[in-house]
Fold each of these.
Amino acid sequence: MERIERIHALHRILSAARYPVTVQRLQDELECSRATVYRDLAYLRDSLMAPLVGNGEAGFRYDHSENDRFELPGLWLSSEELHSLLAAQQLLMRSGGGVLSNALAPLQHRIEKLLDEHAGGRRIPVERVRVVPHRTRRLDEHAFRNVATAVLDRKQLTFEYRARSTDETTRRTVSPQRLTHYRDNWYLDAWDNDREALRSFSVDRIGNARVGESAARDLPEDELNQHLASSYGIFSGTPKGWATIVFSAKAARWVADEHWHSQQQGRFLADGRYELKVPYSAGRELLMDVMHYGADAEIIEPPVLREQARALLSLALGNYER
């Protein structure tokens, strides 16, 4: 048992005890030596200012006449919790394209200090938590911070947006709803004031972002989910229908464990293939994901989506016939 866990367990035992607790009982419950029990008691009393009274013969207890209820100060987590928090911090920092590194550095230092203090001074090999970003996009740190501030402070946001499809730049004033991390990239879900509609904006295409003074318009969570999360992909919209895709028996071993959509329906066919059904609105992103599996995937329905896939594959094949 790590020291931080013993201190936490020691505090729990003493808080619950109505009578003095013997050193032998503490040894048994903490699974440590007599000397370790005395060191932990001394740390609890001298460093954490616990109202500890008693001795080795009569046992130890909290003197509740001094404090109504003593609680451990600061952040107290088990070693497993600290390790998990450190790993999550590394994941967030590295998957944010570096834009969060400066903001999260104090958190990392604090976590590492806690581990050093309570895990026997062992060095934590952070480099063994490996995060490999995939197709991330470069973010403007100033724009990202302003977008995040507007979302959390519930303020309207004004920015220039350069659409990737047309490369056209427009000025937008929006009421931010949610900041979404999707496939290693960040998106802003917002109510567009001029267009009077919900829109999703790729944060890497946002420039000259300014947080306004006016309060953002808040939309109900159900309405956001209905419009932004009911169909396949990040730019989903209201579902227009369901797509049925059949994967080969080889690909089925991967697809059966994948999460494509919250409402997806999947089943193994008699020949080992896997049938997946997902709601969709715009087929562009769904087509890209299906084509990722190449000959191991086939769109069955609807016919219009199947035809779009056939046309894209024909165009791709044409690139290799020259």
Amino acid sequence: MTKNETATSVEEFLVWRSNLFQGLKARKETIIELLDALSSNQQAHSVVELSLNPLFRRDYNSLYRGIQEFLPTQTDPNYEQRIETLFSAVSRTIPPTSKHYNLFGIDTTPCPRRFAETLADKTFIHYPNPIKGNKPINIGHCYSVVCALPDQIDTEKVPWAVPLSGERVPSKHKGVNQGNQQLKKIWQSSLFSDKLSALVADNDYSQKDFIGEQVKHEDVVTITRVRSDRVFYRQFIRDPNQAKTSGHPRWYGDKFDLKDDQTWTEPDEVHHVPFTTKKGRQLTVTISG
């Protein structure tokens, strides 16, 4: 790296650090030192061990208080401004994209805490079990995470994600509802309003509670997987030449069963996309719409 590139990187880092500092509500110096300790960590195995890092000059009590108090609350009169500042700081870590849209991803991730006896609001969570026959469950918390998905890095072509929002899902709520609240804040931010936003998610987010909220945003396209046994129904259009009958007209049109290709009609569009796997295998994906 040349001297000019180094100077530019240092300047960008200082701007990012300043935006992050301004977006914090309280314990600003504590959080900045905690981030320094976390960034230079090589041996800490728990949060409290970060207080032993030379870059963290406070005691472990300040560490926990900083984590509990640094985020702005909605009762803060400058809440919207602080959130916008935090998003601005995060957005500076997202590399510029060559696409004409911003790509985001959302999912929930489990955090098992079965031995934390005093932890509040624990619940059963889905957690993969490597032992065949055991139920994939555990006890702990579940977190909803929204990430920006930038282009693959030029070096090594490795895709990566930039976390934008992470919130715990209360035991009485569903992950999709928590995700709706997080995404609403992101879509309202002016930082991502210059381009179309594409959101990708797995089949848990293909339900009406989630899709119904996302279609309210004009500049957002939501792409989700659906279960292979999902059954759709086309919109019913009454034949104008058909005589009206008594009773309510049909609610739904013809069935579209993903498992039964006999219910499929001719697609309006078909695209064939070739690609090569990491092992060098040549495959072609057929997309019918």
Amino acid sequence: MKKLLFSTLLLLVLLSACGKQETATTDPVKENETETFTYQSETGPIDVPTDPQRIIALTNGPNVLALDGQIVGIDEWTNMNPLFQERLEGVEVVSDESLEKIIELEPDLIIAGSYMNNLDKLNEIAPTVVFTWGKLDYLTQQEEIGKLLNKEEEATNWVNDFKERAEATGKAIREKIGEDATVSVFENGDKEIYVFGNNYARGTEILYQAMELNMPERIEEEALESGVYTLSTELLPEFAGDYIILSKNPDADSSFLETDTWNNIPAVQNDRVFEINTKASTYSDPITLDYLLDIFEKSFLSN
């Protein structure tokens, strides 16, 4: 009886040791597995890495950079933006057509636009999350990127802080220039001039939405719904506000600035034209918004 009891105990010990050994063997494998969670994208649920380390951002790259996302591939337009060049040092420029290069970069997450080609092929390379431009407002877009990167709290904190700062700045500006004062945002093109509504980057979201400044009636009529309207030099006075933000493109034609039409606009004569760099102003991500908010604050309140 004692022998049987001893044998049983010995067998239990051996089984226990084998179990521990098996656990020790399999645990490292589990540790090497990529941890994922289900993100509710606009095209349906998709499993994405909890902590992505090799992101290819074919769109929304600036939003990812603002959350310190680990980008290995970026679109050419973001790469050319002077605000992001230092952050993108060593990052490859890719597109929805450069599938071989994307494969070589071994991404664990791809962010793409709904209008892009090869979405199915991209999804075979890595989980591909699609966003439709303009479907979300500029602040919700940042919060959505925060959810995707598992940094929702960080994104939300920035949104709340930005809204508070922009609201306070807008209040101070309106107190100085008057509640009824109007602001226009112009940009020089190759042979034309653009004027913008309230959601087309160039700081328009800050000026008209966050700071609640007014746009001239003609801009409301022509650009509020479409976002942008093209006009000739002769029409500039009809769209000019009491203050003008000039998004100046150094690579485009700026000869209209020498015309009598431009120089006879009251905002020009009263030194109420504030320039921004077009190349650094074509996004509505946190990095760009903070950059432009600082410019607007200094321009309006120090002038």
Amino acid sequence: MEKQTLRNQYKAQRNALTAAELQQLDLALLQQLQAYDWSALRTLHVYLPIEKFKEYNTWPFIKWLWQQYPELTLLCSVSDFQSHQLRHYKLQVDGQLQENAWGIPEPVGAEEVEVSEIDAVLAPLLVVDKQGNRVGYGKGFYDRFFAACRPDVKRLGLSFFEPVENITDVHGLDVPIQVLFTPGKTFYF
């Protein structure tokens, strides 16, 4: 199936989730994330959820990481909608955030970190195929981000939905993920 068809289908499915269903899925995803071994990482880039899009709420996971892995540096992004690039900043327990024009929470006054320092990226997505090819919102932010990372960076994704068989219109600039966390299972590609 083509990306745009999948994007429309899975956005509609996610938007149809009730608050109670979202809460259950968030909890089940948190359990999958907590079962993963984060101990080898020094820096982890996490996304901050856009509530209106019903993205997985990463905040309970972030707070858990701060407690369980206090030595782990967490990063989040500021989006440049002109260049479709992300810049990366330290996420602090007491750090200030503000929503950009798209409703994405972004750090204010935080320390910027070079992409070369990132060990793993936890990316939002709608759905992936069984080869790890992602369908996001279609702007290519994370494909550009992944391409700029070190070759050994761990590319991780979160979705409420299990992988589909195949995305038919994958192209050369698409960068697949290696691990997908879903509410019921963690997939390795």
